[in-house]
What does this fold into?
Amino acid sequence: MTPVAWHSADGIWHHLHLAPEALGADDSGVPDAAIVVEQGAIAWVGAHADLPDAYRHLPTFDGQGALVTPGLIDCHTHLVYGGQRANEFAMRLAGASYEEVARAGGGIVSSVKATRLASEEALFDAAVPRLQALLAEGVCAIEIKSGYGLSLEHERKQLRVARRLGDVFDVTVRTTFLGAHALPPEYAGRSDEYIRLVCEEMLPVLAAEGLVDAVDVFCETIGFSLAQTEQVFQAAQALGLPVKLHAEQLSDMGGSALAARYGALSCDHIEHLSAAGISAMRQAGTVAVLLPGAYYTLRDTHMPPIAALREAGVPMAVSTDHNPGTSPALSLLLMLNMACTLFRLTVPEALAGVTRHAAQALGLQATHGRVAVGCPANFVLWPLGDVAELAYWLGQRPACSVVRQGRVAVDGMQVQRSAA
It folds into this structure.
């Protein structure tokens, strides 16, 4: 399957209202802005009145007064998997807890079975419409985790599909090896042995094949212990790979402080994050990734410590956590609304959470999450008058135009191009 034909975004993009978040600054934005794209990268950005003469010969794109933000970033997803788990949603509605579903043979292990049974081609075909839904809303970079294979063969299959999605759709994909996601059935009662397999066989082989950008662990009472998590981190560190962590989702195990000691890119979920964990993350520069879709789907009531994170200056990212069990969400814009309504983020905080802070959570802050000279051209034109509308509307997907990797990938606004 291939996407629609795209065309180059090289030229002058004008009649734009550049949001403050586009510049990564807390100012008033630029109401009559221009962006110059050359060879797929941003060559100049600023007030249209200040456009250098050297660029005036280029073709132009009329933005029709659109609001412009950086390309959005979905920094925590499990996009590649087999099957679905709507039955578990029904079980939870009937009163079963997350732990009870997992212990009854559902949860992650259910998706492992379906993923192992699916061919690589079938996994790709199933992931395509999920990715397309996110791209249509302005996503220009995405993290995709493994973790539903739990064996070398099937983890490789997931990561290969993730790489292929990035190639076919010309979108930045960061792959995360999550072999320590759950204990596969064949290792029941032998979690230490499985962790050795993850550290000594799976991770080195997959890293050598160029399939791994980062390493993650599900550190939880129903997942893996602190000691087992540290073993995985040590293996990642030996291979020069950054780490991140599913931390403090169901209880406070101290995983965030451990992750911070290893310079983790991010700690994700963090509903039960402690003051000590916040302090460690602040010192390490670790991003707190908020996942309101899982919080909502699980009907959680223990909110992440937003005020304490804000006071400590810990950057907060927002993501869909798309997965078949606890966050079947395919709208990052909806997550913006949920982050504001459920977690009390301000609109600027929420937008930073899907742009520059999300970029930092993936180690992409030098190239993504802002509209800046030298960065690849990843930005979105929105037919909206106010940044707040991005988080305000429920279920409305604005007909945006998306420049992704220097090409016009989505043109919902039907931008008018004029030759030089």
User: Anything to note?
Assistant: Residues 88 and 106 are 7 Å apart (CA to CA).
